[in-house]
Structure formats: structure tokens, C-alpha cells
Amino acid sequence: MGTPRAAEDVRDRPLGVAIHGAGWVASAHAASWRKCPQARIVSVSSRRVESARRLAELCGPECRVHERFEDVLEDDRVDVVNVSGPHHVHAEQGIAAAEAGKHLLMEKPMALTLEECRALRDAVARRGVKSVVSFVLRWNPLFETLRALLQQGAIGRLLHLEVDYWHEIGPWYTGWEWIRTRAIGRSAMLSAGCHAVDALRWFARDEVAEVAAFSSRGLGRYEYDPNVVAIVKFHGGATGKTSAAFDCEMPYAFNIDLLGAEGTLRDNRIWSRKLFPGQTGWAAVPTVLPDSGAVEHHPFDAEVRHLVECIREDRESHASIADAFRTHEVCLAIDRSAASGGAPVKLPLE
């Protein structure tokens, strides 16, 4: 069992990064790691060796291709494991990496069941490694703008929040054959709707107390219901709504509505007589919106830099596995409610 490198040790040298899983998302992760001067990619591995070799060729001569995940964990040069393979292996690989003393950047979902989420969370806490789960929109410029406005009290106390993830995902998608299955994709909320659920928590700065949800079969292409809508109640009294839709015909959309006692935020538009006493219409903030599902559009550069800073400064991330546990718990509660035909489910599930 390995030991995490002390913060003092890693301040003096670049962190060694292993990319495990060499698909579409991994290519974006690798591009961001390559831009980070405090890190170097020393290993690429995948269930398909040819994919790993193609990605490793872009990462320099010191990057090795490992055929087994065990070899990755035994590589003394590796400080961070970037877990980016199919969903159903995330928890097992994350637990093994934590037990080997490796820090973690994990793609979402980090696990598919409550038991897996709990085991992964506890393994990371037990070994004291740093972690980030890739709810990458937390670094999106619109998200940062909205959080700043909320912290400044621009719209007063939050009363109601709505966040939606709408993205037609069909045979065009490179991961179509596995994301559509219950064994690997599992549910609309866990596959991608978790981004919307995480945004609800991030903006509310509160935890969900109860959910009720309904789902539909869509076009029948998925082994699970690909369209789901949920209403939520927060401990502080605010209400919310979130939805995920995969079997639909429309461009990608990530809708954000935050209604407060003294104003409202709708995507990048603001209504706030507190900030703008003479306001007569919506004011738009020019910024980068979360309006594309393309991985090249996501702010992985900032996410990677954040994890490196947490490791070097020996501090926990706001997007750690411990925090992401709560987002996944809400997703699982939504799935449980939808499966029961809309019966309310209280949280925490633990």
C-alpha cells in the first residue's frame, strides 16, 4: 500500500499524472494536464491498448503505456491518477488508486450505487489523498459569475432554483453502445444529469432534504428512462427543479434560473433593482456560457490547476469526492423516486 506524497515533496517538482481511460473525455483531460507546468503525464492506459498508445504519443517520450491498471498503481512516478474510463469501473479503480496513495481526478459519475459511493468516499478519507470529481462546470465563467452575484446578495435570499441538462445523445456519440445500457450508463441522472444536480447544490449553498421525480421512456433507444424531471426541497426551505433529457430533438442546452427575494438570475441575465435601481429590462452579462456538450468547451484547464493547488497546498477541494458524494446521493434519490412512480424520497439516504 503506497503513501501519499507530502505537500512539501510535491512543491519542488512536477506531479506525475497517469491517464487511465483513453477516450474522448480523456483527450481533453490530457490536453489540460499538458498545459500545466506543475504536472507531467507519465502514463497512459486503457482497456484498448491502441487507444492508449495514440494518446501517449502526444504526451512525450517519458510517457509509458501500461496495459494493466495494477502496473499504473505500482509506477513510483505516478502521483495522480486521472480516472476517465467507462462509468461502471470508476469506483473500483478509484478505491484501488486511493489505497495505493495516489491523488485522484475522477470523471463523473464517480460510482453507480450508494454502496460504491460510500466505499470510495471512505477509502479516500482513510488514505488522506486529495481528490476532484469532474463537475467541471463549477469552473465555467458563467458559474463563477453567478456564484459571485449570489455571494454579494444581488438577488437576496434564494427562493427557487431550476437547472436542466438537455442533450440529444444518440448513435452519433462515440460512447453510444455503453451509455445507453443500464449496466454502464445506469440512468440519465448519473450519466450526465448529475451536472445539473451538482449545479443546484453549488448555487443553493444548501443540501437537498427531499425529492420527487418522474421519468419517461423517450424513443425507446435506452435500457433506462432517458428523460427525467424532479422537484426538490432544500433544508433551508427553498424549492427547486431539475431535469435531464437525452431522447429529444434539440441542440444542447443547460438552463439556469435562480429566483431570489430581491431579484432573479436567468442564465447570463440579471434582474436586480438592488444593484440597478433604474432597471427597466433584463441586463445581460457577456461571459462564456455552458452551452456546449463538446469536451473541448469545458474548463478542464482550471479544474486541473485547482487539483494541483490542492495537492501542493495540502487542502481539500470544494469538488472533492466527499462533496461529490452528496450530488450522487441526490441523483440516486431521484432515480429511486422515479422508479416508484414519483414517491417522495428523503435525504440523506444514509
Description:
The protein has 350 residues and is of the alpha/beta class. It has two domains: 7-129, NAD(P)-binding Rossmann-like Domain (Rossmann fold, 3-Layer(aba) Sandwich); 139-293 and 328-346, 2-Layer Sandwich (Dihydrodipicolinate Reductase, domain 2), CATH 3.30.360.10. Helices cover 34% and strands 23% of the residues. It has eleven helices and 15 strands. Helix 6 (114-127) packs antiparallel against helix 11 (321-339) and helix 9 crosses helix 11. The longest helix has 19 residues, at 321-339. The radius of gyration is 20 Å and the shape is globular. The model has no long low-confidence stretch (mean pLDDT 96).
Which characteristics define this entry?
single chain, about 350 residues, alpha/beta, Rossmann fold, Dihydrodipicolinate Reductase, domain 2, 2 domains, nine-stranded mixed beta sheet, six-stranded parallel beta sheet, globular
What is the CATH architecture annotation of the largest domain? 2-Layer Sandwich
Our count of helices gives 11
- Main sheet? 9 strands, mixed
What proportion strand?
A: 15-25%
Q: Cα-atom Rg, whole angstroms?
A: 20 Å
Name of the CATH superfamily of the largest domain: Dihydrodipicolinate Reductase, domain 2
Low-confidence stretches: none
How widely separated are the two ends? 29 Å
